[in-house]
Amino acid sequence: MKNNEVLFCREAVVNRFSETIAYNILHPSNAIKGQDATFLSSLFVDINLTEITQQKTIFFQSSLEALYNLPLQTHLHMVTFLNATELSEVHLDELSEFRLQGYQLGIINPSPNTIPDVLLDIFSYALFTLDNLTINDVIIRVKDPLIASKKLWVNNIENIEQFTQLKEKVPNGQFSGSFISKVTPIKGKRILAYKAILIDLLVALNDRESSPRVLAGYIERDPTLTYRIIKLTHKAIYHSQFNVSNAQRAIEIIGVRDLIKWVGLVMLSSVLGKPDCLFSMAVSRACFCQSLSAVLFPNLEGAFLVGLFSYLPSFFDEELPILLKDLPLDENIKSALLEYKGNLGGILKIVEAYESGRWEKIPFDQLASKDISKRLLKDLYVKSLKDAREMGTL
């Protein structure tokens, strides 16, 4: 896998003496003010944050919804900042619970006149952004006793005049912005959060005592994955007429056997920097393998995953043995992918030969003995293209 993808951006946060005391973690685009849930949930499995941030405090902005899906990092001193405009007293119990669990919370642009004292008490930090407030606004707000008692951070400082004035008025504050330090892109090797979730799901599925509730716990670690799995229940193939609101109910409708298939699809569709046609080709091959397997070996499982995962090297720019090393897949699936062994390996070999037009590689005589004609093989291929188009809407 290439090591040149921008994983996140790091912005130095300094004290009045310009000493770096924390890092603000930003989305790679730099244009996104609020952090999207997928970025945050994958951040903690992509890189060694402790090493990258030199064991300093980590700041990042999030939403209350995304906070539910973030792992509590006991080895990191990190502060999650929530927007004051999105909070009210109805969130008091939720925020109190997060504090009890060990989360450090900050509030963005709080106004003493609009935020109830009982809610403001929950937060240890207060962030003020100069792209939304003036210097005078900030100075007035930090004089409020409840806000003054917090650790204060002022962001988006653009010039020395602003910095000088803030150092005088907020001497114990923390400061960041383009004037103080340029945003530094951090590049490296990305391991998608979906891969970690997929590994946990495969392990759980190998345990026959794992319930839909346990499996749902893994799915709900990522809100985007949860949304997509729930969205699946509205597809015609599942005929759901119910309002599905959680991952557990979605799994009960979809079925455990199909769960890994769909998680694998979401994982590949989330890889950035790849052409859309690559995903379509991978899904088409997976559908073709599944359709052919259903005719040749009705009780055989794993054909869809074999077809889908045969495209892993194209998505992650890494050799297949390395990509499969950490995935606890059934040995029949691994041997099919790596050595074309077994019935699954034979199906993959036929499908790849058909896709590339290598007719001499297709055992038509053996297929005929299974009542599979050239016409039926063509029909299965065309059907796989249609199925792939429908799955592409996931």
Automatic annotation (TrEMBL):
InterPro entries xrefs: HDOD (IPR013976), RNase_Y/CdgJ (IPR052340)
Domain of life of the native organism: Bacteria
Domain spans labelled HDOD: 191-375
Protein name: HDOD domain-containing protein
